[in-house]
What does this fold into?
Amino acid sequence: MRVLGIEGTAWAASAAVFETPDPARATDDDHVFIETDAYAPDSGGIHPREAAEHMGEAIPTVVETAIEHAHERAAGNGDDSAPIDAVAFARGPGLGPCLRIVATAARAVAQRFDVPLVGVNHMVAHLEVGRHRSGFDSPVCLNASGANAHILGYRNGRYRVLGETMDTGVGNAIDKFTRHVGWSHPGGPKVERHARDGEYHELPYVVKGMDFSFSGIMSAAKQAVDDGVPVEDVCRGMEETIFAMLTEVAERALSLTGADELVLGGGVGQNDRLQRMLGEMCEQRGAAFYAPEHRFLRDNAGMIAMLGAKMYAAGDTVAIEDSRIDSNFRPDEVAVSWRGTEESVDRHRAAETEVQGAEATVRFEGDRVVKERVSRSYRHPRLDERLRTERTRQEARLTSEARRHGVPTPLVRDVDPQDARIVFQRVGEADLRELLSEPRVADVGRWLARIHDAGFVHGDPTTRNVRVGTRGGHPDRTVLIDFGLGYYTQEAEDHAMDLHVLAQSLAGTADDPEALLSAAEDAYRTESDHADAVFASLDDIEGRGRYQ
It folds into this structure.
């Protein structure tokens, strides 16, 4: 099989030829040819009009180069039929004018050779190239690209968003800083280079469940430079902070799903510090990690052709008249035709006496639970100590606070912030993810409403952070645990984030997430004193995470 791929979502005018005997798996006979002409602005970031002009000039040339290569491959194999079996193109997300040029070129080539057309989601292609080349079964996928950042996992025929940026993409965030200091696009390599000579400078660290935010970090970084902090130190602080956040949410996704494989995708993934952080985290928890070679991390048509081949083999093609682009094409909107519905990132694991969580080791000792926030070697020592101490104090405080407001939580029997250690009463027989039911998830909605009305959030109400069932003579009940990411706030948007995190965790671990989430939302509305404001904010939150 030989597929032509065309990419042009923003800055990279790229065409590729992917040739394989089996698109379902990587083989020694796979062949990938990529021709790219990248747009480089004279100053500042990407200018949409200039990017489209570049795309219009460069796409015909790179496509013809790739077609010539396909002809050569066909001739070398003694094939005198059409040089390609299908044309795959990046349908979105991306800049609309650029996408339209790519789609027009793809339609023309498909008609020229009378072959099928395949519309590919750019973000799914970023993760599928890593899954294909790693040979992993069903990994957690971290996409760290210019305009977006996602944590994804496959379940029930779609890639589910387990976590994502709440404001801007990681690459765009870095570029905003580099424009502020007068550096040209792309800014990531310049930050990486300057960070090597810098000392760590503390910046805001924003993780909410498996979601994250970069706008506050960028504002603080720009202000630090303006205040005279050496730019090398600010760059070091940015890398240590932003990449630690991405690594932490990746680990949280591994913990939530029980998966033991992680793949990296996206142009920011070329950063050596990010790769080392992810590798260290996976080694520390016994997971496998794979980062594709650089040519498959940055925007490229090779990944478009590779996923296009999988889709073509599955019969997932699109008629010319139906091949509209979608500049806001989210990865969770893609019906995944090339994978079996029985596959899943979610791996059920039997209860153990010791559990490796996202940031802590939990030991079950009779009627008590000992939780220790183990130092994470991937984090800068100062950042690591700060997070472990702050979160231990906050978890003990908010666990007890929630209990005072009528929310079932375990008793705190001992706390040592310096050693990041808490001893809890043991509660429940299992995590909620193992015994999901509408009444239990409704309880979670009810308990979240109570703590929100009391003026604080849980911060990470996933199906792993709720205990259910009977224990020690107590009736069956639903108990909230792990308040380590919680904080005091009266803001409706912060309260809505708790519901958003719950929804994402249900999507990643439940067969019927919609019905379960509806039960939680109904209970929240009944219990809460300010439900209307919270759900209005939730609607706004769910409209974010788009290509920006």
User: Anything to note?
Assistant: The longest strand covers residues 12-19. The mean pLDDT is 94. The CA atoms of residues 13 and 58 lie 6 Å apart.
